[in-house]
Amino acid sequence: MNILAVTACPSGVAHTYMAAEALKKAAEERHHIIKVETQGSIGIENAITENDVKCADVIILTKDMPIKNEARFKNHLVVRVAISDAVKKAAAIIIKVEKHLENK
Amino acid sequence: MNNLITDKMIILDQSLKTKDEVIRTLAQKINNVGRLNDICKYIEAVKKREADFPTSMGFCVAIPHGKSDAVKTSSLAFLRLNEMVKWSEEEKVKYIFMIAVPSENSDDEHLKILAALSRHLMHEDFRKKLMTIQNAHELVDIIENM
Q: Which domains does chain A have, with CATH numbers?
C-alpha cells in the first residue's frame, strides 16, 4: 500500500511525533510505503504534497485535533484514528487498513 | 542556551508509591533548578493533561507534560523507579519523562529535541538504553547526541 498520514496532538510536543514514528515503523515492517506529516509545535514537517496525495491508497489522520489543510484529501479514502491508538496500536491499524482495502 | 536536561533533573532508582508522588517529585526537580515560575500551577497543568488522557505510552513509559506560562524554560526531567507505579486504569510505569514547556515563545531547539525523544521512545533499542544507564550523565549524553 501507499499510505499517507498526518498526526497532530493538543500540545504538539510529544504524541504527534510518537504517533508518526509508530505508524512509520508499523507500515515499514509490513513493507508498505508511508509518508507521515507532523503538525506539531515546531510547525508542519515532512509536508504531504499534491503529488503524494495523487498516488496514495489511504490517508490516516489522527482525530484529536483539527488537521490543517484537510481539504486536500477529499475524494480519498480517509481513516481517522485516536492519537493514543496510533501510538500504542499502530500495527493493528495498518493491518485493519490492509484488510479494508483487500475487501474493496 | 540552557540545556533541556541536566544531571540535577534526573533521578535513578527511587521508590515512590503513587502517580501523584511521581509528578510532584519530578516537578520539584525542575523547580529546584529555577525553571518554573509557579510549581503549583505547573503541576495543575500536568494533572489536567493526565485527566484528559493519561500519558502512559506502553512499554512502562509515561511522559507527563505541561505546557503552561508557569514554565520559564523548556525542561525535561527523568525518573527511573525501582518498582512500577499505577499510571492509568490499564497501565503501570517505571520510566517517566516529565516535560515542561512554556505556553508561548518556546525555544524551537528544545522542541526539536523533545520531538526527537518522542520518536526515539518508539524504538526498543532506545528504551533498553534507558533501562541500563548507570548514572545521570549517561542520560544527558544520550539526549544531547540524539
A: 2-102 (3.40.50.2300)
